[in-house]
Automatic annotation (TrEMBL):
Residue ranges occupied by any FAD dependent oxidoreductase domain in the UniProt entry: 14-279
Keywords of the record: FAD, Flavoprotein, Oxidoreductase
Record carries keyword Oxidoreductase: yes
Naturally occurring in which organism (per UniProt): Candidatus Gallionella acididurans
Protein name (Swiss-Prot/TrEMBL): Glycerol-3-phosphate dehydrogenase
InterPro entries: FAD-dep_OxRdtase (IPR006076), FAD/NAD-bd_sf (IPR036188), G3P_DH_FAD-dep (IPR000447)
Cofactor (UniProt): FAD
Family (UniProt): Belongs to the FAD-dependent glycerol-3-phosphate dehydrogenase family.
One example GO MF annotation: glycerol-3-phosphate dehydrogenase (quinone) activity
Length: 283
């Protein structure tokens, strides 16, 4: 992929996308495939922010069942299936284990009901997912300990496994940018959007600065999409209601093999994952 800032100045595009994370990359790729003329600018490197620092999961959102968000879970599961089919080299099935301890907030029956619903919402399991066994399974204490030997055994009653999916988030973004470029989009990283150009109260373009050569230019666009992630709230006045939150990952020596764990922190009941990640474990 070669950046070419000189393709931007004074051109008029159907769509200008600001921000080269997963949202910007998908938007540019999708629009370019639909035949629109597209430009996407990213102030740093592609996926240089949150989109390379996620937990790498393409999941249906099991936890949203607790808040009865069935529509959201169903939609996320459908998207998961679509990605498994469209990009099997980038999105692969991953099985999760969920232990049940004597003092677990969610007991065996409630978890069983949730996992049955999760499987049900997946509807047609699809060949790819069924290879990994989408349907949940229950294990007694001994069998679950044997499957996940790193888990504490004190108070362990047993556990379940269920199917979800994993990706390499940064590479997924890079692949979308490469795809957008192949479909004709102008994709320039190290290029910062510094201001919007308005005419008659409508946004009709933007000023951008080449972060490498320190040149500025104007671009014109029929539509502008701002997929700037956390910068959206930080840079917009009147968005005090929008609070930034932070997540932390630890990369540890590999204790997980080919299955992940969904665990609950004893201190505050928050859910976290232990995920196999290129021979290491991502916590
Ligand atoms: C800890 C954590 C774990 C997560 N785990 C998962 C998960 O497992 N699965 C999942 O689906 N989701 C997960 N998410 C959510 C997911 O990672 C985010 O929703 C997603 O990455 C956001 O993408 P984005 O494109 O909106 O933002 P970003 O990836 O932040 O991209 C925005 C880009 O805009 C650029 N930008 C900003 N201002 C400008 C400007 N003026 N000019 C040019 N470029 C600009 C930035 O440099 C940045 O690269 C997780 C989130 C967190 C925080």
């Amino acid at each position: 992929m070669k950046r070419n800032f000189s393709l931007l100045p004074d051109r008029k595009f159907d769509l200008l996308v600001c921000g080269g994370g997963i949202y910007g990359a998908w938007t540019a790729y999708d629009a370019a495939l639909r035949g629109l003329s597209v430009a996407i600018v990213e102030q740093g490197d592609w996926a240089g922010a949150t989109s390379s620092a996620s937990s790498k999961l393409i999941h249906g959102g099991l936890r949203y069942l607790e808040t009865y968000d069935f529509k959201l879970v169903r939609k996320a599961i459908q998207e998961r299936q679509r990605l498994l089919e469209l990009a099997p080299h980038r999105v692969w099935p991953l099985r999760f284990g969920v232990p049940v301890y004597r003092d677990s907030r969610i007991g065996t029956l409630q978890l069983k009901a949730g996992l049955m619903l999760y499987d049900f919402l997946a509807g047609r399991p699809g060949e790819i997912m069924s290879d990994a066994g989408i349907a949940h399974r229950h294990f007694d204490r001994a069998a679950f300990s044997e499957r996940f030997p790193a888990l504490a055994r004190d108070g362990l009653k047993g556990g379940f496994t269920y199917g979800d999916a994993q990706t390499d988030d940064a590479r997924l973004v890079l692949e979308l940018i490469a795809g957008a470029m192949s479909a004709g989009a102008v994709c320039v990283n190290y290029c910062r959007l510094t201001g919007l150009v308005e005419a008659g109260g409508l946004v009709c373009g933007a000023t951008v600065r080449d972060q490498i050569d320190d040149k500025s230019a104007q671009i014109f666009s029929r539509q502008t999409v701002y997929t700037a992630g956390q910068w959206t709230s930080a840079s917009q006045p009147g968005r005090e209601w929008c609070r930034l939150s932070k997540g932390v990952h630890l990369v540890m020596p590999g204790t997980m093999t080919d299955e992940a764990l969904l665990l609950t922190a004893k201190s505050d009941g928050r859910v976290f994952f232990m995920i196999p990640w290129y021979g290491m474990t991502l916590l």
